[in-house]
Specification:
This protein is an alpha/beta fold. 35% of the residues lie in helices and 16% in strands. The protein is globular and about 80 Å long.
């Protein structure tokens, strides 16, 4: 490993290695969004996509490895193990390739396939773990990373606890923004995940002007905006614990953004400004738009866009994926119309908690005349619920027939698999096809459970149509929004 520059490069504008291209990312005015939203201040994006790995994570990746080399934690030819949602892994893989290390990355199954394939393209080993487990579970990606680090005598950068994560942004991102805005920045808006970007950048900017407002854009459900940490679909931001770089005293405001607003904003920005951003970028821009609407005309709101939308082509920019989670409408008379047409005396969502006894699940089904219930935790409110399974009256009947004592058993011990899902804006014909092989579907709206749809609901709907009853539509963004 050497950083000596080849004599032939002296006087040229040729970088000595890809690592020399990290940082100095551009800033661009979001002119069309500002005009559309009636924003009078300057709304500007710090566009991290031009880093070699396509994201802001290249900055802390380099800083953490250089610090580990200096301390002796990382030795020549060593191995790097890190849990990552993708971007930090890419940054580490790039630095490792240049400096002769091997890499093992641990990801959750929430990460898109493109991110897994991308890390493997850099020659890294990737281990995928389930996302729906607690951090202390042996299968969680944190615990798996700890085990692999010990087994392989590896160095773990540990971006969530490593102080050099935030230091990278104190050294580079903050000074760049201050210089590029000529010190006129008044608001800095960024997503919070490991908190390195927002804390490091915020610390530098506050050191230059304490009046600059630092605003965290956070997914609904994340701990930073008061949630439990689950569930939400947006990747790379939000957490279920407080990382070392978290600095609530530094932040002037936290704005919670739903998955739906994040994803639709990302799609809209990409189609309006021609800047392809991902879901976490959509989270930050959605929050920045709210801030900019209230800002003074002379203010400058800088939003931090961490990466590109190219890593989300199978999710945020995939029509089928978006429709299945209830973010888009595929037709006028869709699944949502079936729900609107049914008996209003039945509340939209009935559920049972995993710790409730089977007897209570049966009572809920009897009282409401339903045969299936989703099993959900983190309730109420249901907007923060996490579906863990389902119960069916036929299966419960068989269980109690075998063991009458099961009436007092906790639901989670006898529950079945989760109900198949369908988006509230998808075609009724799809629901018909799916209900041929399952008695009920869980309808999603905005990525969250809305209601259970049964064959009886469809029969009532078709009867109303046949009788000529006027039926409502649903208020969802159309495909392509």
């Amino acid at each position: 490993m050497t950083d000596e520059r080849h004599p032939a490069l002296e006087g040229t504008e040729i970088a000595d290695s890809i690592l020399d291209l990290i940082g100095e990312t551009p800033m661009v005015r979001m002119r069309r969004i500002s005009e559309e939203q009636g924003i009078e201040c300057s709304l500007v994006m710090k566009h991290e996509v031009t880093n070699p790995g396509g994201s802001s994570k290249d900055r802390p990746a380099l800083e953490m490895i250089l610090a580990a080399e200096a301390s002796g934690e990382l030795r020549p030819g060593g191995t790097i193990v890190e849990p990552t949602s993708g971007n930090t892994g890419v940054g580490l893989a790039i630095v490792a390739a240049q400096r002769g290390y091997s890499c093992v990355f641990v990801m959750t199954d929430k990460a898109g396939k493109e991110k897994v394939d991308l890390l493997r393209a850099y020659g890294a080993e990737v281990v995928v773990c389930p996302v729906a487990v607690a951090p202390e579970d042996p299968q969680s990606y944190y615990k798996v990373a700890e085990r692999l680090t010990a087994e392989r005598d590896a160095f773990r950068p540990n971006q969530y606890q490593n102080p050099h994560n935030a230091v990278a942004h104190v050294k580079t991102t903050g000074p760049e923004i201050w210089r590029q805005t000529a010190g006129r920045i008044t608001h800095f808006v960024a997503g919070a995940g490991t908190c390195g970007s927002i804390t490091g950048t915020g610390r530098y900017l506050k050191s230059q002007n304490p009046d600059i407002r630092i605003i965290a854009a956070d997914p609904e459900g994340s701990v930073f905006s008061g949630g439990s940490g689950r569930p939400y679909l947006v990747e790379g931001v939000g957490e279920d614990f407080f990382p070392a770089a978290y600095d609530g005293d530094l932040w002037d405001e936290v704005i919670a953004i739903s998955d739906e607003e994040s994803f639709l904003t990302a799609r809209h920005v990409s189609q309006t400004e021609g800047i392809l951003i991902g879901g976490s970028g959509g989270t930050a821009v959605a929050a920045a738009i709210r801030v900019a609407r209230e800002a003074d005309p002379d203010d400058m709101v800088v939003v931090f866009n961490p990466d590109s939308g190219r890593g989300y082509l199978s999710s945020v920019f995939n029509e089928e994926w978006m429709a299945n989670f209830g973010f888009l409408r595929r037709c006028d008379q869709c699944v949502g119309a079936v729900l609107d047409a049914r008996n209003a005396s039945i509340e939209n969502l009935l559920y049972v908690n995993p710790t409730q006894p089977v007897s209570e699940a049966i009572e809920i089904m009897r009282a409401n005349g339903v045969s299936q219930l989703p099993v959900c935790k983190n309730t109420p409110p249901f907007a923060n619920a996490e579906v863990s399974g389902s119960v069916d009256e036929l299966e419960l009947m068989e269980t109690i027939h075998r063991d009458p004592g099961a009436m007092s058993t906790e639901v989670e011990k006898v529950m079945g698999a989760k109900l198949p899902t369908i988006g509230v804006g998808q075609e009724v014909e799809l629901a018909v096809q799916m209900l041929e092989t399952t008695p009920a579907l869980l309808v999603l709206s905005g990525g969250r459970p809305l209601s259970v749809l049964t064959r009886t609901d469809l029969l009532s709907y078709f009867t109303s149509v046949a009788e000529g009853t006027e039926l409502p539509g649903t208020d969802l963004p159309t495909t392509g929004a």
